[in-house]
Hints:
The protein is mainly alpha-helical. The protein contains 5 helices and no strands. The protein has a single domain (3-71), classed as 434 Repressor (Amino-terminal Domain) (Orthogonal Bundle), CATH 1.10.260.40.
Amino acid sequence: MGKAGKALKQVLEDYSISQFALAVAMDVERNNVYRWVNEKRDPTAETVVEIVRALKELKPEAAKVFVESYLGEETKHT
């Protein structure tokens, strides 16, 4: 488990976004966000897309950093 959760936890901390705020923006229960952040459950691919959309609404730079952190080298152009 983990890469998405680790990336999400770091972004939420770095950009001072609460788990509750993300949950509201995604229209999900806060305990879902808690599970992702604490690596109890990995978000599905569809959920990762929803996380990015919600982060874009809250703080666009946070969405960019989340994608780069989660996908790493895959986001870099050659």
